[in-house]
Specification:
- This protein is mainly α.
- The chain is 68% helix and 2% strand.
- It is built from 8 helices and 2 strands, in the order E-H-H-H-E-H-H-H-H-H.
- It has a two-stranded antiparallel ribbon with strand order 1-2.
- Helix 3 crosses helix 4 and helix 6 packs antiparallel against helix 7.
- The relative contact order is 0.09.
């Protein structure tokens, strides 16, 4: 990744410090929760972690973890990846932050499933929550990465006809595409808002022993992310309006990827 600041500027240092502060607080609370498993009459487990009412230590853990992830995502969004496109509008910041959150969340999925595998096959003590937690996190990874893909223009696009058009027709096609995106979003929100609101207000559970509120949180997030994707599409349209015509080829070569392959082969020999 490129170490130069993308948008934070002088705030990059304080954001990084805040990230490490809340990471340390999260780690300290986690250590206490582990110790409490052996020294308290009512230890707090994963069942209580999603039911924080009346448990200040759980609230503290969730808040510190959330802030650590948020500041971490903000700090990471200020670092441009090698193959990432340049930020072209203020709304791109939102997409970059949520994209970084999806990257961090993927790490949590790996940790959760690794813990489950070791617990089940080494210690013969599988959990009730690991699989459902992974599903829960993966739902948000899917949604956040969709918004990130829109910002990066990396979603599936077919250029066979588009490349044959003059620039004014390409612009017209882009406008039609954004319009159709918003038609879909309108229909999605119109048809799904009442159900999403009911599930969110009741925090509808998954119906399992652990019973996380997967339907109650994911359904509402689908509508929110859909709106954000529409806003990102408008931002892309405005940013790309005066760009020179682009022509795409199936023979385009990723020079950076070739260089990485060459270095890998040299290291092996």
């Amino acid at each position: 990744m490129n170490g130069e600041s993308v948008w934070l500027g002088s705030l990059r240092g304080p954001i990084k410090s805040a990230m490490f502060l809340f990471m340390a607080l999260t780690a300290a609370i986690y250590v206490w929760l582990v110790i409490a498993q052996f020294v308290t009459a009512e230890p707090i487990g994963m069942h209580e972690m999603i039911r924080p009412a009346g448990r200040p230590i759980v609230w503290a853990m969730l808040i510190c973890l959330s802030l650590a992830l948020l500041f971490g995502a903000i700090w990471m969004s200020d670092i441009k990846g090698v193959i990432e496109v340049d930020r072209s509008g203020p709304f791109d910041i939102v997409s970059l932050i949520l994209g970084r959150l999806s990257m961090l969340a993927t790490v949590f999925i790996v940790i959760t499933m690794s813990f489950e595998v070791v617990a089940r096959y080494v210690f013969n003590g599988g959990t009730l929550w690991a699989n459902e937690l992974s599903l829960w996190i993966a739902a948000f990874v899917f949604l956040f990465s969709g918004l990130y893909a829109m910002q990066q223009r990396s979603h599936i696009r077919i250029y066979v006809i588009y490349d044959l058009m003059p620039r004014w027709m390409q612009k017209a096609s882009d406008v039609v595409s954004v319009f159709l995106i918003w038609v879909f979003i309108f229909c999605l929100v119109w048809g799904g808002y009442a159900d999403a609101e009911k599930r969110l207000l009741t925090l509808e559970g998954y119906g399992s022993a652990w019973d996380p509120p997967i339907p109650g949180t994911v359904k509402a997030t689908v509508l929110i992310i859909a709106i954000l994707v529409g806003l990102q599409a408008i931002s892309n349209l405005i940013a790309d309006w005066n760009k020179a015509p682009e022509h795409h080829s199936a023979d385009d070569i990723d020079e950076h990827e070739i260089e990485n392959i060459r270095k890998t082969l040299e290291e092996k020999h």
